[in-house]
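G., the chain you wanted modeled:
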Amino acid sequence: MARNELRPVIRLRSTAGTGYTYVTRKNRRNDPDRMTLRKYDPVAGRHVDFREER
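Predicted structure as tokens:
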């Protein structure tokens, strides 16, 4: 199906080393490389970068 190919489910893992993850979807046409978002890490108690893992 086109939904799974164009907008795959990805995991965003915290760079703070806490092991906390977010699960989201991304558009492969707009973001072909690995995605990095700045989000809140409740384990660290602050905003940190979350990088896509495959």
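Helices lie at 2-6.

Shout if anything looks off.
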